[in-house]
Amino acid sequence: MYTSGITAMSSLQDTLILEQQIARLQALLEASRQVHSTIQASEVLQQTARIVVRELEMEGAVFLAPDGTAMASYGEAPELPFDGCPRFALLSKEGASLATLIVATPQNADLSLYEQDFLEGLVLQTAVALENATFHERNLQWARVQQDLDAARQIQRSLLPKAMPQIPGFTIAARSTTCYEVGGDYLDTIELPDGSHLMVVADVAGKGLASAIVATIFRAAFRSLASRAVSLAEMAAQVGQQHYDEGSEARRRYVTAILLRLDPRTGEGEIVNCGHNPGILLEPDGSLRMIEASGPPLGMLPGMTYTAEPINVPAGARVLLYTDGLSEVFCGEDEFGSERLATAFQQLETRDPEAMLDAIWAALAAFSNNAPPTDDMTGLALCHLEAATA
């Protein structure tokens, strides 16, 4: 009889322990559900702190960031330096510290085994929810950034010539591709009141959005001076000084540019190279003339002057202006280079500038084994037609 009573009491005790464990698990599951119910990082921590205080009847709870600043709290938060307060680290999947939970127990009492287990399980779920919420917020931020970049790309594309000008006796084509959403390359063509045509290809140092903004500023300065009766050399000097005066950040994003003014009635004009890649003039007899820089990039140094060279583009001649994205294409350690580009341009049989650019882009893709471009690529091709063809 005595033995049967002991057995019954033991069975009852086991049942109570099992029921307590089930209740604890249910409480932890409910707490986890609440923690995972939000996709905002701050709300995840605030929800957890609230659960700690209410479910375990603690005095207060506070979450600290890795740098020690408070991220969220509930109840009577423990005071610095948190002596005697239990601490629980929230770790990412990679083991990096996300936050630390500090709990203020009633009268600084020790945690019971149940409370310790509950908090450890809750902290583990909170770390998962916090990472998920952080990733969600980053995705939202990136989506907004991507939306802004898409708009910036559309704006930048709208600033390029909608169509190449109709120049009597000449054909002209241009192409510009960016390695990111927006880039720092710029090209433009303007017909002047005297019937001549002004062309420019420019490259802002660096890539991405900052360089694109500087390219837009350069466009405004260039177009403003193009409407005045100034020489190319004077135009380059004024644009360079204006850029330099914008301050240190603008100077860091200096601009290389090559400007060409051409009178289509005579095929003569002038050209100035401001720290840019050499322009290529292919004469009717197949010989090459490289137009080298006559001064540093625009905006790099104050008070710079430039020299414009006279240029003659007779019937049958071709001109290529480009940015270094075309010459600085690599196959391993081997660079395509300006000389190889000039040779490729020289060997083209077509007289269609659009086809010329197609062929050059194809040659660069073949050379790099179709590797993604590492820089913005811009080219402008100009052809003076033979008299019979014209």
Protein described:
The chain is of the alpha+beta class. It contains 9 helices and 16 strands. Strands 5-16-13-10-11 form a 5-stranded antiparallel β-sheet. β10 and β11 form a beta hairpin. α1 runs antiparallel to α2, α1 packs parallel to α3 and α2 packs antiparallel against α3. It is elongated. The relative contact order is 0.09.
| Biggest sheet layout | 5 strands, antiparallel
- The whole-angstrom Rg is 35 Å
Helix count equals 9
Beta-strand residue fraction? 15-25%
The run of helices and strands is: HHEEEEHEEEHHHEEEEEEHEEHHE
The end-to-end distance, rounded to whole angstroms, is: 122 Å
> What does the average pLDDT come to?
85
User: Rough shape?
Assistant: elongated
Give unreliable regions as ranges: none
Structural class: alpha+beta
Helix percentage range:
40-55%
Give, in spatial order, the strands making up the sheet with the most strands: 5-16-13-10-11
For this entry, give a set of tags.
single chain, 390 residues, alpha+beta, five-stranded antiparallel beta sheet, 24% strand
SSE blueprint and pairings:
Blueprint: H1 2-35, H2 41-56, E1 60-64, E2 70-75, E3 87-91, E4 97-104, H3 113-159, E5 170-177, E6 185-191, E7 197-204, H4 209-226, H5 232-245, H6 248-252, E8 255-263, E9 268-274, E10 279-282, E11 288-291, E12 309-312, E13 318-322, H7 324-327, E14 330-331, E15 334-335, H8 337-346, H9 353-367, E16 377-384
Helix pairs in contact: 1-2, 1-3, 2-3, 4-5
